[in-house]
Amino acid sequence: MDNFVVPEIGVDVVDCERMKFALERTPRIRRRLFTEAEISYCEKFRFYERHYAGRWAAKEAVTKALGCGLIQWNGVEVLRRPRRAPTVRIFGKIKEFADRVGVREEDLSISITHSELSAVAVCIVRRNSDSNS
How many whole angstroms separate alpha carbon 61 and alpha carbon 56? Predict the structure, then answer.
């Protein structure tokens, strides 16, 4: 990992209809891909698939920004607090990878947006200027 360079930016787009189809066809997929808190958040909305799609896009964007790819489906959790930007928590293999490349959870900043057609998320790794990583 000595020569590995963290990309520090990741973006992903998810089709909302495809997400809705996947959720309807395989309801158990919710628990494989999302945490209980994410499920609870998304299910509050009439167009729940848009929120699931946004969270899935964010998970992909985070792993792209880290440079590890999606090595664990539920290794990223999107947290949403009222009137605050979303944040993420990382777990398991993704957390281990981030630790190895010197990226802390608090270094990850995300933004999510969605329309009726698609959801887009961006993640950037914001490091302190005094970091040697």
Answer: 9
For residue 1, tell me if it sits in a domain: no
| pLDDT (average), residues 79-97 | 94
- Give the domain extent around 89: 9-125
Rounded to whole angstroms, how far apart are CA atoms 7 and 9? Answer: 6
Q: Which of 123, 119, 98, 99 is nearest to 56 (CA)?
A: 119
Report CA torsion sign: 85, 91, 94, 100: positive
Tell me the one-letter amino acid at 26: T
Give which of 25, 81, 24, 31 is closest to 48, Cα–Cα: 24
> Which pLDDT belongs to residue 3?
81
Does the structure show a pLDDT above 60 at 132? no
Which strand (E) or helix (H) includes residue 123? Answer: strand 118-125
pLDDT digits (tens, 9 = 90+) for 41-64: 999 999 999 999 999 999 999 999
The number of domains in the chain is 1
How far is residue 14 from each of residues 18, 36, 119, 126, measured CA to CA in Å?
8, 21, 5, 24
